[in-house]
Amino acid sequence: MHVLVTGGAGFIGTSFVRMILRDRPGWRVTNYDALTYSGNLENLSEIEGNERYSFVKGDVRDAQLLDEVLPGVDAVVHMAAESHVDRSIMDSGPFVDSNTRGTQVLLDAWRRAHGVDRRFVYVSTDEVYGTLPLEDKNALFTEETPLQTNSPYSASKAGGDLMVRAYHHTHGMDVVTTRCSNNFGPWQFPEKVIPLFVTNLLDGKKVPLYGDGRNVRDWLHVEDHCEAVLTVLEKGRSGEVYNVGGNNERSNLELTHSILSIMGHGDEMIEYVKDRPGHDLRYAIDASKIKRELGWEPTRSAWPGALEDTVSWYTENRSWWERVRSGAYQSYYETQYG
Ligand code: NAD
Ligand code: TDX
To answer: What is the distance in A from the centroid of ligand 2 to the CA of 57?
Structure first.
């Protein structure tokens, strides 16, 4: 089996590439990534010499390069995307271009290379469902929940998601889509809330909590997500969508208190800042379909252990995040208040 992973130099992609090489000894992986600000081959340095691994610096919008690379490939796992909501608020152009148009260009190239019979997995997000009310704790996103995107990021991901659906219905392509909740773990770009807060505290800075901190997210360890994607690649039913979640909902305030407590700080390190425009209130996933049909459930996401391990990783890998943070990167908070 030869899998091409787009976005394999990003946070989830690097974890997925490492997992395939570790857990599927007969497989080859091509990592196809444009190396935007969040793509970092340093995250894969330990597998550089592996003869089952190769890297192609390429953009998913580059049809010509895809036509050269895709013929020897058995399956595509499409993870490449502009992934940060705050950046999409500042400038949505790159999001539509990479996430929606890029997915369409890749689907067309995959069909040119192999017709419709080889598998294409699209890594979507729970954010395509929009938001749930805070009041109704039992409300969950199911695969039947209508797509009601609220941020330019989620709208651009939904564009790709709907293209994938359309290529199955129109052309009969073998596609499967995953919609996952918030990931955490090592090597996450420190613009996302957990690595941002942990690295700020390690630098003696306060953590910028948006609004009143009531917003709720469901947290899943990145390796659990990658295992779900691998399961769907191997066993998912063609044309289906599978929700992926940790059953691990926390308000941002709760998350912040957990991080502060693990790191030995108090509430004085919280800085309440202006809310994110259009900030979705609550994400919560019904992931019973993937468990029932494919037997997947999370095994690495239990708190507080998984969060403590993640905090330890950033504590022990200061040189990694200092290098990453020194690049041309400004968080939404810094551009608004910095
Ligand atoms: P990331 O920003 O860390 O990585 C994205 C990768 O895609 C980078 O390596 C980047 O260089 C590459 N890329 C971006 N545009 C590209 C293009 N046009 N062509 C080729 N490569 C390009 O993001 P991540 O958190 O690892 O997310 C990976 C995927 O998972 C995304 O599709 C995201 O929407 C989805 N997802 C993420 C989460 C999460 O919590 N992080 C949750 C659910 C779904
Ligand atoms: O500085 C901050 N302060 C803050 O309070 C940041 C960066 C975030 N937040 C809040 C906003 C969200 O409610 O924390 C929560 C999580 O924020 P992000 O880490 O930006 O993630 P989110 O917007 O929930 O989106 C993530 O999960 C779904 C990923 O970035 C997406 O790629 C994925 O699809």
So the answer is: 28
> pTM score, two decimals?
0.97
For 326-337, how does the pLDDT look when each residue is reduced to its tens digit (9 = 90+)? 865 544 445 544
Q: Is 275 a catalytic residue?
A: no
Atom of ligand 1 nearest to the CA of 189: 3
Q: Describe the strand order of the beta sheet including 249-251 as a list of residue ranges.
A: 182-184, 216-221, 249-251
> Which amino acid residue places its CA nearest to atom 15 of ligand 2?
193
Cα four-point dihedral sign 176, 14, 250, 272: negative
How far is CA 139 from each of CA 131, 136, 243, 336, rounded to the nearest angstrom?
Answer: 10, 6, 15, 33
Q: Which two tokens stand for residue 235?
A: 């066993």
pLDDT for the residue numbered 132: 96
Q: What six digits make up the tokens of 228?
A: 């779900």
Residues of the chain with pLDDT under 50: 330-333, 336-338
Residue 45: give the domain boundaries: 2-184+221-247+281-301
Please report, for the domain that includes residue 290, its CATH number.
3.40.50.720
303, 259 in Cβ contact below 8 A?
Answer: no
Q: Using alpha carbons only, give the angle 10, 209, 245 rounded to the nearest 5 degrees.
A: 50
pLDDT, position 337:
43
- Domain membership of residue 240 (yes or no) is yes
User: Catalytic site residue 126?
Assistant: yes
Active site annotation includes 143: no
Burial (Cβ within 10 Å: 0-12, 13-18, ≥19) of residue 204: exposed
Pocket test for ligand 2, best of 179, 182, 329, 330 (most atoms within 8 A of CB): 182
Instruction: Give the ligand with the smallest distance to the CA of 11.
Output: 1
Overall number of domains in the chain: 1
* CB proximity list for 150: less than 8 A, separation 6 or greater: 127, 130, 131, 278, 280
Tokens of 160: 């790709």
- State pLDDT tens for residues 45-54: 999 899 999 9
